[in-house]
């Protein structure tokens, strides 16, 4: 599967931890220097925003934070393989995906500050709201992909022989999930459906080794990517800390999906360098030395080493300053978020509010007002 | 950014929801009325798609979708894998892409694998997306007993869903309502769980509702007017209550029967109006009485009609035991005698 300095354990690798490039027979590096610099900036910005958010939670300004430290390459590499018309279904740790898709960083804060359970318009960035129930979103992704297929089938220009319309560029879907979600029934049902209908969907599994305290070994006896074979579509493990490899593998899977060749499962082999959430204490379960091992494989350091020969210190300083400024802006914007109206939980329960809901809302307001002298 | 509540035009009335003009037989079985509703909805809107187990080539195990795949093709009448969570989950994705999926869950007892998708996703995505997503998904579920079936094929799980905000629940008891409510459910931008009284699938009635324009789907219907006591029923027990009302009339009692049609939301004005007139009420459903819809209705009517009530609101329904094997189901199902017994008790106060 791999060649050069690639390690089979880590999957497809195009950038070694020391920053040197290597090759893979199936997956060419598609990122040029300018694009790699762009990925570096996005990953660095993510790291800074992530740290700022953790600080906000520690200061009581967020109800919870879900760090993604260590998974920046998996997220930036994959989302940058997608086009704006591809539709993305995140789980709940995909902040870098969301931000890189153009979602203002503070939108994620609204969720974790306790203002909303979601809030953004999925159509604005072709980005679904977060899904907190593990793997629930994988079925939505398959359904959306079936919708893309139906769009084509129902298009008057549909060519039954070619199996494709002479219409606009076909789109595809990415469903993000984690190693824990791979044990869920919904993920496995999604794989069945995607295979049965040859749906244009890429399942992007970030195997960060830990589902809270449950190790990946408790989820699977085989590499997660190997599961795909049983469902009848390709599975690829990629070094999730290698942004170049992640981008290449995801690009290839999306191209397959768009060409009508069906689903792919990508296992991005990575590591959650922080806690599951700010409520978690990984020192209770992570073996000593494991974090140090992965720190040496840090996805941002790796790109920094790769870029060192072509970028000077001033450029790196500029990147760090920009990331720090973004973090400061996020902090200010988060603290300025208004609280929701007290009766906001009545909003949008149904498209047309029922008489009973209207009455309950009125009674709730009346009750609150009864305390105001 | 704050979310604001913006009233939207009602989608509950579908004035065009009339059967196609072709000469309809004077009366059709309820199952065929459902099929006609699906067919006309698909013909009217290319975004309506069906998915479920055996709905295509076979036409559904009850033949409700008979002929639809032939007419509309495999792309729009989708024979799904045997995967209920998948059916509802995929329907959610299709709705996000602008389709109006109609799911069939083959039997009531098979909805539980899809329960998570319905309760944690389908019912909440409109609010989770701050109103940007509309989950125009209809989930058809044949429900209830009386067909001598094996386990999991005779259940009445509606209370689980009535308890969940963000869902609408409908259940027809006549062919006319089967057609009309199904058209309204499919046209509705909210998720609708559509409970079909499977033991009434073969009962016949006119396809067209007498009212013009047809009533909104949230309205209950006075199926038989009366003055002494109100029987509140839905789906399969409406027929039972109408029979009980006829029997009671022979004893000189005037029994009103209200057919709920909508289980969520409940039509409180119609119920309260009836009970204020009669002073007595008995709720009749097949579902387990404990924490069932009857409990909610009894509590609410007690609050709203306290000074009009001559007796506590009675409840007749399933016992707190799993739905029994076929040879005992007639003991378990509320029948005419149990309804009349509850009416008698309402007159003892």
UniProtKB/TrEMBL annotation, chain A:
Catalytic activity: N(6)-[(R)-lipoyl]-L-lysyl-[protein] + 3-methyl-2-oxobutanoate + H(+) = N(6)-[(R)-S(8)-2-methylpropanoyldihydrolipoyl]-L-lysyl-[protein] + CO2
One BP term from GO: branched-chain amino acid catabolic process
This protein's UniProt keywords: Oxidoreductase, Pyruvate, Thiamine pyrophosphate
Domain of life where this protein originates: Bacteria
Domain Dehydrogenase E1 component residues, every copy: 41-307
Keyword Ribonucleoprotein in record: no
Molecular-function annotations in GO: branched-chain 2-oxo acid dehydrogenase activity; magnesium ion binding
SUPFAM superfamilies: Thiamin diphosphate-binding fold (THDP-binding) (SSF52518)
Enzyme Commission number(s) of this protein: 1.2.4.4
Cofactor: thiamine diphosphate
Gene3D superfamilies in the cross-refs: 3.40.50.970
Role played: The branched-chain alpha-keto dehydrogenase complex catalyzes the overall conversion of alpha-keto acids to acyl-CoA and CO(2). It contains multiple copies of three enzymatic components: branched-chain alpha-keto acid decarboxylase (E1), lipoamide acyltransferase (E2) and lipoamide dehydrogenase (E3).
Family statement drawn from the similarity comment of this UniProt entry: Belongs to the BCKDHA family.
Protein name: 2-oxoisovalerate dehydrogenase subunit alpha
């Amino acid at each position: 599967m791999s060649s050069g300095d690639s390690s089979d354990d880590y999957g497809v690798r195009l950038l070694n931890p020391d920053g040197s490039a290597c090759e893979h027979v199936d997956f060419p590096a598609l990122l040029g220097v300018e694009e790699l610099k762009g990925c570096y900036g996005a990953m660095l910005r993510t790291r800074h925003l992530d740290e700022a958010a953790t600080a906000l939670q520690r200061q009581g300004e967020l109800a919870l934070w879900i760090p993604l430290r260590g998974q920046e390459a998996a997220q930036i590499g994959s989302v940058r393989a997608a086009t704006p018309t591809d539709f993305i279904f995140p789980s709940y740790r995909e902040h870098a995906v969301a931000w890189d898709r153009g979602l203002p960083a503070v939108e994620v804060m609204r969720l974790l500050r306790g203002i909303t359970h979601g809030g953004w318009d999925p159509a604005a960035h072709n980005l679904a709201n977060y899904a907190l129930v593990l793997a629930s979103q994988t079925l939505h992704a398959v359904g959306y992909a079936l919708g893309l297929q139906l769009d084509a089938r129902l298009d008057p220009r549909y060519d039954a022989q070619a199996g494709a319309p002479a219409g606009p560029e076909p789109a595809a879907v990415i469903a993000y999930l984690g190693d824990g979600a791979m044990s869920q029934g919904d993920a496995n049902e999604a794989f069945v459906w995607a295979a049965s209908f040859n749906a244009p969907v890429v399942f992007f599994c970030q195997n960060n080794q830990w589902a809270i305290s449950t190790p990946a070994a408790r989820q699977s006896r085989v590499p997660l990517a190997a599961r795909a074979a049983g469902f009848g579509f390709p599975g690829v493990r990629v070094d999730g800390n290698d942004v170049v490899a992640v981008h290449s593998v995801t690009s290839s899977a999306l191209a397959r999906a768009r060409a009508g060749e069906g689903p792919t499962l990508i296992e991005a082999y990575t590591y959650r360098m922080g806690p599951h959430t700010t409520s978690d204490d990984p020192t209770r379960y992570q073996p000593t030395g494991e974090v140090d091992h992965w720190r040496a494989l840090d996805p941002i350091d790796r790109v920094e080493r790769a870029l060192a020969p072509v970028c000077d210190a001033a450029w790196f300083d500029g990147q760090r300053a920009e990331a720090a400024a973004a973090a400061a802006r996020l902090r200010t914007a988060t603290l300025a978020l208004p609280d929701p109206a007290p009766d906001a939980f009545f909003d949008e329960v149904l498209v047309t509010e029922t008489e009973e809901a209207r009455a309950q809302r009125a009674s709730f307001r009346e009750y609150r007002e009864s305390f105001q002298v | 950014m704050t979310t604001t509540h913006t009233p939207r035009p009602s989608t509950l009335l579908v004035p065009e929801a009339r059967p196609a003009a072709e000469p309809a037989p004077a009366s059709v079985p309820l199952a065929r009325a459902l099929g006609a509703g699906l067919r006309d909805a698909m013909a009217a809107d290319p975004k309506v798609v069906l998915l479920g187990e055996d709905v295509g080539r076979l036409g559904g195990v009850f033949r409700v979708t008979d002929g639809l795949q032939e007419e509309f093709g495999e792309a729009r009448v989708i024979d799904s894998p045997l995967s209920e969570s998948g059916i509802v989950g995929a329907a959610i994705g299709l709705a996000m892409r602008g389709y109006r999926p109609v799911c069939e869950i083959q039997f009531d007892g098979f909805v539980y694998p899809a329960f998570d998708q319905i309760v944690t996703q389908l019912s909440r995505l409109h609010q989770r997306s701050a109103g940007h997503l509309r989950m125009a998904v209809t989930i058809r579920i044949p429900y209830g007993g009386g067909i001598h079936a094996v386990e999991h094929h005779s259940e009445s799980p509606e209370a689980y869903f009535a308890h969940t905000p963000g869902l609408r629940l409908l259940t027809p008891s006549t062919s006319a309502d089967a057609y009309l409510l199904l058209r309204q459910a499919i046209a509705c931008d909210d998720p609708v769980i559509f409970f079909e009284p499977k033991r009434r699938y073969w009962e016949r009635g006119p396809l067209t509702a007498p009212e013009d324009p047809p009533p909104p789907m949230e309205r209950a219907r006075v199926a038989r007017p009366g003055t002494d006591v109100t029987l509140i029923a839905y789906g399969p027990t409406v027929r039972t209550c109408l029979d009980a009302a006829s029997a009671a009339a022979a004893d000189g009692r005037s029994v009103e029967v209200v057919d709920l049609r909508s289980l969520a939301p409940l039509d409180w004005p119609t119920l309260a109006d009836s009970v204020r007139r009669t002073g007595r009420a008995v709720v009749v459903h097949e579902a387990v009485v404990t924490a069932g819809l009857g409990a909610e209705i009894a509590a609410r009517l007690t609050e709203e009609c306290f000074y009009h009530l001559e007796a506590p609101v009675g409840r007749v329904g399933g016992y707190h035991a799993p739905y029994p094997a076929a040879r005992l189901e007639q003991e378990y199902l509320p029948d005419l005698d149990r309804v009349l017994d509850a009416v008698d008790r309402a007159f003892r106060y």
